[in-house]
Amino acid sequence: xxxxxxxxxxxxxxxxxxxxxxxxxxxxxxxxxxxxxxxxxxxxxxxxxxxxxxxxxxxxxxxxxxxxxxxxxxxxxxxxxxxxxxxxxxxxxxxxxxxxxxxxxxxxxxxxxx
Length: 114
Fold this sequence. Notes:
The protein is an all-alpha fold. The chain has helices at about 10-20, 25-30, 35-40, 45-60, 75-85, 95-114. It has two domains: about 1-65, Orthogonal Bundle (Endonuclease III, domain 1); about 75-114, no CATH class.
């Protein structure tokens, strides 16, 4: 979700501090929007992000773990990433260029091992 409408370089600048400060859904929910915004301001859309991440965190705590798309704010990139990195599904059509590169690499590795 941090990568929405921004680059990994911007995310790299805030990711460590964000996850150090908000190490669970509960700590994020309890934080004030201003606390969150102080860290994520460089990402842009910070007001919207703070509200969306709190909404996501609440839903995450109640999620049954079945369909990632049931969570608010999960789009195609997040859904594809979840399938690849959490479920080990590699035969999906992705739009993101980095996910495409990863799938090409992983499929090449699987062919080498066969």
